[in-house]
Amino acid sequence: MKSVWTKVGAVALAGVIVANAFIPYAFATDVAPATEQETAAETKVEEFFTTESNVLDFGRVTELGRSYTKAITVKNNTANDVIIDASAGVYADVAAENQALTNWIAFVGGVTHFNIAAGATRDVNVRVVVPADAIAGTQYATVELVDGAAHKQSVLVKIDIAGENLKYGSEVNDAYIEPVRLDDTLKGRVTVKNTGTAGFTSTYQIRAKNFFGGMDWEVIKQTDGEVFPGKQIEFSCDEQLGFGVYSIEQRVTFANAEGRMVESLLSRTVINLPWWSLAIAGGVLFLIILITIVAKRRKHSKKNEDKLRRAERKARKAAIAKVEKAEGKALKKKGDEEEENMSDKEAQEAIEAFSDEVADDTDEIENIAQKLEETEEEGSADDDAEYDEEEAIPIKVNIKKKK
């Protein structure tokens, strides 16, 4: 029986392993190939040209009435020369008092057309002329870059004007990582709120490490965004993550009251269990429970069998003791009867022996009496003179009686 259950357990375990290996593929769906029209619609501008950064930050300036210059580096990702047109625009996501930078922007040399060779890079030089009466705070604008095929990319331009009204500050809220997932995704979020009058760029990163050794620390998502004065930005992660138990770190940078960028960290353990892994785990758990129940029943059955055997042995011992006791009583009774019979026989023999002894004594007494009579006749005369009366001769007879 033991070998049978061992084989059953081995077969079940092999089935679980095979299911774990093939279930994800069995239920996978084939994605239809995209049409040429869909492929064209999904083409990104990065395939044509890119910028080194999406933010051009002039930083904090303390001298008013002068100009500051920075460059936007543009790369041509195509195999042909490309012409890029640059222009300044209003950044509409901020309040009106923070949109003055649009009027302060100029391009060095007045050049707004840039010819970039295939695979090459070129700097688009942007100059900001700060008025002498500029109000303290962060000012925003955009620089739009467009190629001949109407592919467009916007770069955020910002500058901080020093003064009493330039204040930094922020809050980090709603930092959360979902601890258990039943699919192949990792979900996290965090909100950064700007409580000052100066804007700052916040960087968000979430990375994971598999406890089972499937991967070391790996960045799942990294992005950044501008947190405008009085506004807030929400970062989130909804990225694919395989089955397993992970250690997750969610990091976000924000500006403190002194204007320095600091980091907030949220760490926690995340269990990612796709439905097929739960099905496998349920099968394994059911198998373990089944084997445990069978083992307990076998143990319980063996225990009952042991109890039954002990009870049978005890009953047999009791029966044997009872028979031995009965036999002892019977033997004792028989012995008493034999002893009684033996006593009667011995008494009869004793009586016969006593009768023989009495007869012998009687003969002896008669012989002695005869001898006395003869003696008396011979010496009666002498005796009469010496004695007036004859003394009787005592005769002692011992009679032994057997019991």
Quick structural summary:
The protein has 4 helices and 17 strands.
Tell me what you see in this structure.
This protein is α+β, with helices and mostly antiparallel strands and 403 residues long. It folds into three domains: 45-161, Sandwich (Immunoglobulin-like); 167-273, Immunoglobulin-like (Sandwich), CATH 2.60.40; 275-374. The chain has four helices and 17 strands. It has helices at 2-26, 36-41, 275-378, 380-386, and strands spanning 49-51, 55-61, 67-76, 82-89, 105-107, 113-116, 121-129, 137-146, 152-161, 170-177, 180-181, 185-194, 200-210, 218-227, 232-240, 244-255, 261-272. The strands form four sheets. It has a five-stranded mixed sheet with strand order 2-9-8-4-6, with no helix packed on it. A five-stranded mixed sheet has the order 11-17-16-13-14, with no helix packed on it. A four-stranded antiparallel sheet has the order 1-3-7-5, with no helix packed on it. Helix 1 (2-26) runs antiparallel to helix 3 (275-378). The longest helix is centred in the C-terminal third of the chain and has 104 residues, at 275-378. It is rod-shaped, with a radius of gyration of 62 Å. The relative contact order is 0.09. Residues 16-42 and 385-392 have low confidence and may be disordered.
Number of strands: 17
Total domain count: 3
Q: Low-confidence parts, pLDDT < 50 over ≥5 residues?
A: 16-42, 385-392
* Largest sheet composition: 5 strands, mixed
CATH topology term of the largest domain: Immunoglobulin-like
Radius of gyration: 62 Å
The helix/strand order is HHEEEEEEEEEEEEEEEEEHH
What portion of residues belong to β-strands? 25-35%
Helix/strand/pairing class, anyone? alpha+beta
Total number of helices: 4
